Each structure stands twice: as structure tokens, then as C-alpha cells.
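My main concern about presentation is that the manuscript never shows what a single data entry looks like. An entry of this sort, consisting of the sequence and the corresponding C-alpha cells, reads as follows:
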Amino acid sequence: MAIQRMGRIIGIKPENISEYKRLHADVWPQVQERLRQSNITNYSIYLREPENLLFAYWEYVGDDFAADRAKMAEDKATQEWWLICNPLQQSLPSAQKSEWWAPMEEVFHME
């Protein structure tokens, strides 16, 4: 099974940056466990100021990302987490209507 490296980007409302950092300093264990069960590893989120962008990177080690994402979306703790975190963010103007975090194309990787 090949590792798929994935990157996503989204905006964050400047007035919400400190709250977002506070929340992510202590991510709920249930949310982290759901990520692991969904075959997501090596997950990081970076903040770029003053542009107020969040960049997420993870490695997917499963066989069916769509199915694993659906399981995450069905998880009650993850749903609650998203209800708290999503209003702090703002989708990019270039994102598709179906996207919240906009996907990014990997153009270089070195092991």
C-alpha cells in the first residue's frame, strides 16, 4: 500500500487565530483516534500570518480515502469538533463549492 501525501489550505479569520491555536493545543483524543482509524497519519497544521492561511498536511495509508472520510464525517466527536472549529475558518475564494479545505497539488517531494 502506497502512502498518499495530502495537503489542504484554508483561510482563518484573524480574530479567531488565538482560539484556533488554543483548541489545537489540546485536540480531543476521540478526534485523534478517529483520524488514526481513518488511516491518516503524520498530520500537521501550519499557520501563515499575516495572510491568515492554514496549511494541513497528512499521509493517508488506507485504500479508500472517500470511505474513510465518510466514516470521519459520521463520527459524533468529529462532528462536534467541526462545529467548533469550522466557524473560525473561511474557505478560499478559489475553492470549489463542495470544498471547505481546498486541495493542493504536490509539485515536489524528497525522501
